[in-house]
Amino acid sequence: MLQQWRHRISCMTYLRLDIIGFVDESFPGFIRCAFADADGNRHTFIEKIPVVTTENLWSDSVYPQQGTVPCEKVERLEGGSGLARITIGVGDSLDSPGYSEQFIVRESQLVNE
Q1: How many angstroms separate the CA atoms of 28 and 37, rounded?
Q2: Chain centroid to CA 77
Q3: Range of the structural domain that residue 18 is part of
Q4: Residues 4, 99: Cα–Cα separation, whole Å
Q5: Model-level pTM?
Q6: How far is residue 29's CA from residue 23's CA, in Å, rounded to a whole number?
Q7: Burial (CB count within 10 angstroms: exposed 0-12, middle 13-18, buried 19+), residue 112
Q8: How far, in Å, CA of 1 to CA of 72, rounded?
Q9: Mean pLDDT throughout 50-68?
Q10: Mean pLDDT over all residues of the chain?
């Protein structure tokens, strides 16, 4: 059954996530990030440090840290469920080009700036 989508969220929206570790010192530095979707499934990916935080993180930093990743697309689920369908660009990392991935997350995990 297809879900009906409605109500685009305006302005730039970010998904809150945990920065769980340092991966590589190649410029500008790469970190491992994690978040849970609405069903509690944990997702991890590697991202460039400046994409998810303004903090000066490196291999000797203390982890985990808080971060955010920009959402390419955000749509709220109808019916007041408190859920949103997001599209984020992930994986623009060391050995592979980036790609977009869709997730259902809780609206409380999102921040608008």
Answers
A1: 28
A2: 18
A3: 5-112
A4: 25
A5: 0.81
A6: 8
A7: exposed
A8: 24
A9: 96
A10: 85
Domain count, the chain: 1
In this prediction, residue 30 carries a pLDDT of 94
On the question of pLDDT at 111 being above 90, the answer is yes
- Residue with the two structure tokens 């109500």: 7
CA 103, CA 110: separation in Å to the nearest integer? 12
Average pLDDT value for residue range 55-59: 95
Please state whether the peptide bond connecting residue 70 to the residue before it is cis, i.e. omega within 30 degrees of 0: no
H or E stretch at 50: helix 49-52
Measure Cα distances from 88 to 9, 61, 79 in Å.
15, 26, 23
Q: Average pLDDT, stretch 83-99?
A: 70
